[in-house]
Every structure is written in C-alpha cells, then in structure tokens.
Design goal:
Distance between the termini: 19 Å
Strand content: 15-25%
Structural class: alpha/beta
CATH superfamily of the largest domain: Type I PLP-dependent aspartate aminotransferase-like (Major domain)
Mean pLDDT: 94
CATH architecture of the largest domain: 3-Layer(aba) Sandwich
Strand order of the largest sheet: 2-8-7-6-5-3-4
Shape: globular
Radius of gyration: 21 Å
Number of strands: 12
Length: 380
C-alpha cells in the first residue's frame, strides 16, 4: 500500500444550499495545494501490511529507536499539572535551552515541533506572492508551508554531489527578490553539511536565512546558533524529535534575534507547547549525558550501516552526518524495493522527485535492525 493510501485526505463537502458555493469560498491557493505526505505509525503500518506492530522495523522517519531518556519518562509519570494550561512564555524550557545552546533566553522560542516555527516564520515575513528560496532536494515542509502561507517558491537545485550551489542561490535570490531562504544542515535527505562560508554569503544579502539543524546532535560539527547574535537575519531551528527521542510529543525551538522572538510570541498560539512536551523536554536537557550516549551509539551504527550498504551491489549510499543514510538505487526500482522490504516488516523512505530520482533514505536503527535490513537486501 502506498503512502497516499495510508494518509487519506478529507474531502471538503459539496455545497448543499444552492445559494452558497462552499468550495468557492475557500482561499484559492488552498484548493490547489499539494499536500505534504507524512509517515505513519507502526500500528497503521502493521494493519496495512499484516505484520504485528511490535515486529515492524521502522527506518523511515529518522526517529530515535532508543526512545526518551529515563528522566523524561519519570517526569511525565509524576507531573501533576496536566489539568492546567502550560506556561505560554515557556520560561523554564527557554532557560534550560539557553544553557544548552549557549545563547540568552531572549533568543529562543519553542514550538509544537520545529515545523510550527517554520510556519510562524513564514507567516511573519510573507505577504501573498512573496518569494521563498528552496535548495532541493531538501525537507518537504519548506515548499509545503510556503504554499500554505500563499508564498511563491523558487529553487536553486543542489549540485550533483548535493552540495549547495551558492552562486545559483545568490542569483535566484536576487532575480526573484526572495525574502526567505531555507537551508538544512545536515540536509535532509542527503545528510551533508552546510559550510560556514556558504551561510555567510547568503546572510550578507539581507535575506532571512533559516538554517534547519534538526539533526545537529548527530553532525559532529559546530552549530550555527551562536551566529544569531551577529546576524539578525539568521534563524536556526532545532528539535527534540531526533536526538532526544521525543518525536511523538512534538517539541522544537528556534534561535533568532530577540526582536523576531517578540513578534513570533505575539502571533503564536498562546499554549502551543503542551505540558507533557515541556516536562519531557526540560527533563531531557537535564539528562544530556544519557541521551548523548545514545546519540554516540547511533553515530557508530550510522558508520557501520553506511559501510555495509556499500557492499550491496545495487545500492550507492552517500556519506551522512545525520541519523540516516541516503542510497541511490542502481538497476532496480526503488519504489518496488521499498515495497518488498515492507512485506518483510521493514519500512524505509522512498525518495523520488525532480531533483533526486530512484533513491531510498534509511534511518539508523539499533544494530539488530541493521542486520535484519541487510539480510533482506541481500536476498533481493
């Protein structure tokens, strides 16, 4: 079963009263919006594939297979304020994040996942028709949220090695009068890093430069968050979904100029980060040693996975600094390969679009997950 079937989209009802055209009242750009196709949880995959959810090897969402920290789980068990609205100013979490990131609390805002920060930033800057620059292949939420916010998307495709084509990005930004550019480091789905000179070349244009560091903890490279004190047009996104094992609780954050934080505070929903997410995120930051130990295991397993995938004759894996490995597929159809793995209860991400054809993105799991994946691949 394909991803669209697993993610049915509700249809707007047709107008029942002749005096009202309900669909005609919907904003025009929403009627033409191309939806983002999310991944689905193990219980849904299990029902679709006839495999028990407990037996599924889920390597399609870049989640942390080790789960949350014990301190986070303990804090969730003992929280006594689930019946009270959360702190709209996120004071304790912002203070803990300031210590973690190394910037003042005035530079930080938390969101319902970093996805919400992407949406808030675009709503802050875009008038209908304003231009957003994307550098594909990259994260699908950038073009999706641009559509939602009635923006216009222009692209500066990456080079064949998936490095950033800075000259093309600068040309496109100037020609289109773009307001915002999105860059991920490590990039999803290719796993490579953004170089500092590339970032600074774009920052000096005055564009709002959004650097998505969702996979930063796996990168073994410095974060760009410290640069927000020098560049007021820099926005850095981070999340607890990957390194901290909190994907299901949806908590991310932005690091940016205080003036922009104040404006985002004004337009965000007042209680956008729920009590459970706040409690778990704060406890995770207090248990960094444990969590970073798990990150170390995943980095080591990433390198083993990459090496083993290089031995599979029909795969061309790319070096990665995230918690996944992208593989070009040679001589086989990547979609069919994904389906064959799914029949064995192993789920990976099929990547196929204008800028990246016939590829699989494979999340790093535990060693036993790698072993099961390789055993299946070597039979195909």
């Amino acid at each position: 079963m394909d991803e669209a079937a697993l993610n049915p989209r509700p249809q707007l009802p047709t107008a029942s009263a002749p005096a009202r055209d309900l669909l005609g009242m919907v904003r025009a750009h929403y009627r033409e919006l191309v939806p983002y196709v999310p991944i689905v949880p193990p219980e849904v995959l299990g029902k679709a594939g006839g495999v028990a959810a407990s037996q599924i090897i889920k390597l399609d969402g870049n989640e942390n297979p080790y789960g949350p920290s014990p301190k986070a789980l303990e804090a969730l068990r003992h929280c006594a304020t689930y019946h009270i609205y959360p702190d709209p100013a996120q004071r304790e979490l912002r203070a803990a994040l300031a210590d973690y990131v190394g910037v003042g609390t005035e530079h930080i805002i938390a969101g319902n996942g970093s996805d919400e920060i992407i949406d808030l930033v675009l709503r802050l800057f875009l008038e209908p028709g304003d231009v957003v620059l994307d550098c594909p292949p990259s994260f699908g939420m950038y073009p999706f949220n641009t559509q939602v916010c009635a923006g216009t998307l222009v692209t500066a495709p990456r080079r064949t090695d998936f490095s950033l084509d800075v000259e093309e990005a600068l040309r496109q930004a100037q020609d289109s009068r773009a307001k915002v550019v999105f860059l991920a480091s490590p990039n999803n789905p290719t796993g490579n890093l953004l170089r500092r000179e590339e970032l600074e070349a774009l920052l000096t244009t005055g564009l709002v430069v959004v650097v998505d560091e969702a996979y930063q903890e796996f990168a073994e490279a410095p974060s760009y968050a410290a640069l927000v004190s020098s560049f007021d047009n820099l926005v850095v996104l981070r999340t607890f979904s990957k390194w901290a094992g909190l994907a299901g609780l949806r908590v991310g954050y932005g690091v940016l100029a205080p003036a922009l934080v104040r404006l985002l505070d004004q337009i965000k929903p007042p209680y956008n980060v729920n009590v459970a997410a706040l409690v778990a995120a704060e406890a995770s930051l207090a248990d960094r040693e444990h969590l970073m130990g798990k990150v170390g295991l995943l980095i080591a397993e990433r390198e083993r996975l990459y090496g083993k995938l290089r031995e599979v004759p029909y795969l061309e894996p790319l070096p990665s600094r995230a918690n996944f490995v992208l593989c070009r597929v040679q001589g086989q159809d990547a979609g069919q390969l994904k389906a064959a793995l799914a029949e064995r209860g192993i789920y990976v991400k099929h990547v196929d679009g204008p800028w990246l054809r016939n590829a699989l993105r494979i999340s790093v799991g535990k060693p036993e997950h790698t072993d099961a994946l390789l055993a299946a691949l070597n039979k195909m």
